[in-house]
Give the backbone structure.
Amino acid sequence: MTFSGGLDSNGVGVEIENVDFSQPNSGLQQVLEQLLSRASPLRVLEAGCGSCTQIQLPEDRWVVGIDISEEQLDRNDKLDEKIVGDLQTYDLLKNSYDLVICWDVLEHLDDPGAAVDRMANALNEGGLLVLAAPHPWSFKGMVTRLTPHRMHVWFYRYFIGDKQAGVNGRGPFPTPMAKEMFPGQLVNRSEMLGLKQVLLYSYKGPVEAYVAERNVLYRGFSYGMKILSTLLSRGRWDTSHSDFFLVFSKV
């Protein structure tokens, strides 16, 4: 896959080439490596980072993590600097980061738009913003929006097998999925903030794949929803694509 990317250090447009999305996270990694090779050393913000980092970063980088949970920050050993704060209200330093990563966070916020505003403001010119989240219009996303949080905890404990789910600061966390985190809303808002869309990609995430493999009834129902949604939308909507990521560059 080849497509137009962000800007190099001289403000010149960059074309992203030969990206393989057969493994979505690996494809995203390839995109970032092509773009970030032009900006070193990297200053990175992990926004709502929790206890782990999702993107493999070069050794020559400084990683700042912000999260509302000090306990989650203490579990993350990839951070060089830690900020206890709410991404929706914390005033991040302007024009301070080459890369901002916000992974599986926006769906948990009551005001994701405010968080996006602050992350965009924190980006350097030519910097990249990576947003990853469950797709609200996927089968998984619709079930999540229509069921109470206690059902999510039950699902993780007794279906996924995580007996510690929902205790001691562990997920799943409340998931309001405010409309401001829907992909179209994020694209529109980011454009108003002076960001250029580099990539929007939806795919079957690991939880969706795990559940479909484990439960034949779920697999059959999910497949039926996939066929129906694809037919009704003429191929534009697939409910089995449970997750998405967006990449923007600051121009």
In short: The two ends are 23 Å apart (CA to CA). The chain has one domain: 3-136+171-205+243-250. Confidence is low (pLDDT under 50) at residues 6-13. Strands lie at 3-7, 13-16, 42-47, 61-67, 81-84, 97-103, 123-134, 195-203, 243-250.
